[in-house]
Amino acid sequence: EIQSSSNPLLKALENMTLGSMQQVDAEMQGVQEEFEDAWEHAEIQQPLDWEKAWLAQHPDFESIWEQQRFEEGWDSQDIRGTAASIMRALESQNNPKFLDSEFYKFVEKLQSGRARIEDNQLIEEFGNAWGEDDLEKAWQGPNLEAAWQSAENNHFEQLWNGLSPDEELKFEEIWDQMQDEYKDNVMQWEQAWNSGPQDYLFESDNPYSETPNPFEVALNKITSGDSLEAVLCLEAEVQRNPENSEAWALLGKLHSENEEDTKAIAALEKGLEVDPYNLHMLMTLGIAYINEYYHEKAFELLKTWLENHPDYSGVQLRPGDLRESLKEALESACQINPEDPEAYLALGVLQFTDNELFMAEESFKHSAELKPSDPSLWNKLGAALARQNKTDEALECYHRALELKPDYVRTWMNIGLAYSNKNEYFTAARFYLCALSLNPNLSDAYSHLTTAFICMDRMDLMEKLQVKDPFAFADEFQIITREQLPKSNEWVHEFIN
Predict the structure, then answer these.
(1) Which candidate, 421, 419, 439, places its Cα nearest to that of 429?
(2) Is the pTM for the entire model greater than 0.85?
(3) Structure letter (DSSP) for residue 16
(4) Which positions ≥6 away from 487 have C-beta within 8 Å?
(5) Is the dihedral of CA 327, 333, 335, 340 positive or negative?
């Protein structure tokens, strides 16, 4: 958490994720360009080591590093949790300069477990070690804030200075509340990370607990576009029939589409306990693990998927780095059976994880062409395009996903992010609000709404966020409800059949 400026608006800016910095409106865009210019100038003067650069922007991280190293000793889960947080921030900026950096690769090794801290040394799986002095050097470097401050015509300062005292006070009140909520969310996330995937938690008051044949009712609910009610039906089914792996699989899929990967993981793990070699669940759980940065677990599941697939029994994984050997094996699988959308999907997921975005785009495109009725494939293709700033093409894919599954919450959120990348913050906010309408438990949407409203310079809308009700904005935004959605969830029939 960066707290290097005494100016309240700059402090707010610095405490945002790197992705939020990119989402400035036209009035603020100059400061991003100036920062980039200063950055390039700094690189010319002194080539940047990204490990050094990160610490220069995160002075508190160094003290945490020192305290852990000398007072408490290294805890691998703490390190992996911190690394995962850094990766999320870097990835949210959608900037190849960060994602292609050696620092990103370094942090990914810590997060994935391919490197670990042992006796004040960084140990990589192939045996290399960095000594204590090397670690010290890795976290020292030029102060990037100086580059930021050296940019002329600071538009954020100008914006802040233009606020009235009342507006300034209101902004500080709202921002303080947001920071408290942010800290609570981070604490909950860290606790979840350190404890690993949890048992599935059922809704305590389920209206379908006594419903006859809740599985069939769930299928009807999905077809009618009510996935939240379908989740309750499926929970009733697996509580009554815990050996129904098909119900667990569908429950996990619905949670994933509703932007609830933690619940998806818990459901799919239960399903695999019943049917440990179910190819569909292995693939779906592997992708959910990647979404939550359990990369090593994901790679093991994709390996199990490959080894148990009847078409690929002859494909051998070479010894060494599992991620790379998996990619090579999946490339072979795509050649063996070029009509298998799942093989292209698995390959695309690994390529996307490695930031090989164009290759991931091609893999997802092949997969979607082979199985055009699967909305998740169009959503993934859209994400690969969006990460390459091909926003209009990404929107076409997202719209195709919603044609197939109108209540696909993850896609509604992705469309909002796409419009934000186009600096169309009003439209972005509308899609975030629609996503909240479809899934009121979608806490991430509020942080994206905060960014959009700041970029719109709408303090009044930020104040409304405290209500935690998307329909509090209905006087200004057109917010769709489930009842207004078309009934076109075609994928469920293929999933079952």
Answers:
(1) 419
(2) no
(3) S
(4) 223, 224, 225, 406
(5) negative
What six digits make up the tokens of 329? 């094996």
Report the pLDDT averaged over residues 133-162: 43
Name the nearest CA neighbour of 316 among 332, 302, 300: 332
What does the alpha-carbon distance between residue 412 and residue 401 come to, in Å, rounded to a whole number?
A: 10
In sequence order, the 6+-apart residues with CB closer than 8 A to the CB of 83 are 107, 108, 110, 111
Q: At what angle do helices 295-308 and 102-112 cross, to 10 degrees?
A: 70
CA distance 493 to 495: 5
Q: How far apart are the C-alpha atoms of 403 and 401, rounded to whole Å?
A: 5
Close Cβ partners of 420 (under 8 Å, ≥ 6 residues apart): 23, 428, 448, 451, 452
Report, in angstroms and rounded to the nearest whole number, the Rg of the chain calculated over CA atoms: 23
Please state, rounded to an integer, the average pLDDT across all residues of the chain.
75
Q: Strand order of the sheet with strand 115-118?
A: 115-118, 121-124, 129-130
Q: Read off the pLDDT of residues 46-72 as tens digits, 9 standing for 90 and up.
A: 444 444 444 455 445 444 444 443 333
How many whole angstroms separate alpha carbon 371 and alpha carbon 373?
Answer: 6
Beta-bridge mates of residue 130: 122
What are the CA-CA distances from residue 205 to residues 236, 350, 489 (Å)?
A: 11, 39, 27
Phi-psi region of 383 (alpha: psi -120 to 50; beta: other; left: phi over 0): alpha
